[in-house]
Amino acid sequence: MSDEENIEDIDEQMIDEVMNVISTDGYYQQAEIVKVTCPVCGEEFLGTKRHAGGFIAGHRAYHEFVNSQDMIIDNMGGI
Ligand SMILES: [Zn+2]
């Protein structure tokens, strides 16, 4: 097990591995590398759980925003 990786060097072969990750926003010790897929648009993310959480929250916010815009437009009888 390699014990230290730069966030930019993470690849699919490291999924489920636990390692220390050096990232631009901090040093993550004993971080598990995970892969997540957005159920709405199918975009995939590979990285630490911390960053995957940001990916999921970001996609949720984005897709909710787009959907709410569509609803507002519908409610006003537009397009
Ligand atoms: Zn998405």
Q: Note the overall shape.
A: elongated
- Elements, N to C (H/E): EEEEH
Number of E-type strands: 4
Distance between the termini: 56 Å
Any idea what the radius of gyration is? 17 Å
Percentage beta strand:
25-35%
Number of domains: 1
Can you give a write-up of this model?
The chain has one domain (4-75). The chain contains one helix and four strands. It has one helix spanning 49-75, and strands at 4-6, 18-23, 26-37, 44-48. The chain has a four-stranded mixed β-sheet with strand order 1-2-3-4, with helices on one face. β2 (18-23) and β3 (26-37) form a beta hairpin. The radius of gyration is 17 Å and the shape is elongated. The N and C termini lie far apart (56 Å). The model has no long low-confidence stretch (mean pLDDT 93). Zinc ion binds at residues 38, 40-41, 43, 59, 63.
SSE blueprint:
Elements: E1 4-6, E2 18-23, E3 26-37, E4 44-48, H1 49-75
Parallel strand pairs: 1-2
Antiparallel strand pairs: 2-3, 3-4
This protein binds zinc ion.
Zinc ion (ZN) binds at residues 38, 40-41, 43, 59, 63.
